[in-house]
Amino acid sequence: MWIGLVNTSSAQPQGRMLGLGGMVGRTAGLSSKLYIARDSSAVQPADVRALDFSISWTADDIVWWTVHALTHRKIPNSPLSFFLGPGATVGLNDSRLFWGISSNLGLFFEKHSFEIFMQISPRLVIVPDMVGEFGSAVGLRYYL
Predict the structure, then answer these.
(1) Distance CA 119, CA 141 (A)
(2) pLDDT in tens, the chain (144 residues)
(3) CATH number for region 2-143
């Protein structure tokens, strides 16, 4: 419910479009974010602002590749922004292929060319067996 109370006035760090970095947590690995909405005044609350890509691994030796289409919302009277979005995921473990749908939601803080974020990423593996998975991480990105 509180999501509807926030606005979308946040712009990407220093007008830069691509952020690269890493993350640690239940899933650990490399993370990137590509902004696709340049003019925040033209962005509607439900518009996709960025694409989030990651390659990560878990303690049970599964390597995951994910992509999410994210919307952003600035939290009023706060330096934080909220993000959420649907996506897809592919995993590989001992020559076994997994794939399914996922989502990504969390908070981030931008300062100069840096972004600090924390996220949770629930996913539904569809193939080979339907099972729910859950990832979480904190990370840092530098914007080029």
Answers:
(1) 13
(2) 344 444 444 455 667 899 999 999 988 999 999 998 755 555 565 577 899 999 999 888 889 999 999 998 888 899 999 999 999 999 999 889 999 999 999 999 999 899 999 999 999 999 999 999 888 999 999 999
(3) 2.40.160.20
Give the amino acid at 120. I
Give CA–CA dist 50/71, Å, rounded.
Answer: 7
The Cβ of residue 54 has, within 10 Å, a number of other Cβ atoms equal to: 27
Distance CA 33, CA 37 (A): 12
123 within 8 A of 132, measured Cβ to Cβ = yes
96 alpha carbon, distance to own chain's centre: 25
Delimit the domains of the chain by residue range. 2-143
Q: Is the dihedral of CA 27, 46, 6, 40 positive or negative?
A: positive
